[in-house]
Amino acid sequence: MSGLDVLVVGATGQQGGATARELLAHGHTVRAMTRTPKSPAARALALAGAKIVRGDLTDCGSVAAAAAGADAAFLVSDTFDAGVEEETRVAIKGVEGFRAAGVGHVVYTSAASADRDTGVPHYESKRRVEHYLREQAVPHTVIGPAFFMENRFFGLRRIDDGWILPSPMPVDRQLQQIPVDDIGAFARHVFEHREQMLGQRIDIASDELDGRHTADALSQTLSASVRAVAVPADAARFGPDLAKMFDYITRVGFVADVAGLRRDFADVHWQRFGDWATKQDWVAQAGRAEPQ
């Protein structure tokens, strides 16, 4: 297919960056929208071939200017810096900017199960954005990623005889998860297959395994013993929002069709946790403070 011209909001972050890199690798034009065009992440994207454009989701006009003439736009919204009410407001501002620019396809990354009654604040804020996209008849697709594999970096620590992998869920509870690179690859597929994907909402996950099997995979990667240990998933440790998330996914869990995704979207090359883990620098990443 001919190359698309895609505005990527959040291009200097995890999901936006993965999407920008994936689109560039497949011959598409990327406009990387950022408030800080001279940041190291923006410079790296420019070196990779992206066009860096200044824009701010709080300013509908700047979004419209950045999106003018683009075929499509990628939108990811953030709760943890902005707060849930501000996340919804700002994301809707972004959608209004896309509409003003006449963008023909908006791909919004929400969260797995955010369309359900979860009671999780940062899911509910995304649910409101999803509702707005439908209500305003914006041509769109919603992607709902499950738990990020990158969150396994948080709290991992070395002990005398190996490593401890903290789990804010029972260690035998299955958890659907996905690396950010696979989110970017799926977003690229959605952009390339606009007509088939318009109006769809799809939860995505690359693998499903419990804490013990996650620790086993890391033991092989690190060539050392890794032990999964359950930790209290309470508000004192994680804050009220994440505590509610861990409670929900422990009680209910995600419902992505992992086998179906592998069958129907084979070009995404979904990564199993063990395969993804071998590509990571766990020693450098270990000990991060909290998941996202």
Can you offer a commentary on this structure?
- The structure is a single chain.
- The chain is α/β, with parallel strands linked by helices and 292 residues long.
- 42% of the residues lie in helices and 20% in strands.
- The chain has 13 helices and 13 strands.
- The protein has a seven-stranded parallel sheet, sandwiched between helices.
- Helix 1 crosses helix 6 and helix 3 packs across helix 4.
- The protein starts with a strand and ends in a 7-residue tail after the last helix.
Overview in brief:
Belongs to the NmrA-type oxidoreductase family. The protein is α/β, with parallel strands linked by helices and 292 residues long.
Task: List how many beta strands DSSP finds.
Answer: 13
Gross morphology is: globular
Mean pLDDT level? 94
**Spans of 5+ residues with little confidence (pLDDT < 50)?**
none
Q: Radius of gyration over alpha carbons?
A: 19 Å
- Structural classification: alpha/beta
How would a textbook summarize the main sheet? 7 strands, parallel
Relative strand content: 15-25%
Helical residue percent band? 40-55%
What is the ordering of alpha helices and beta strands?
EHEHEHEHEHEEEEEHHEEHEHHHHH
Number of helices: 13
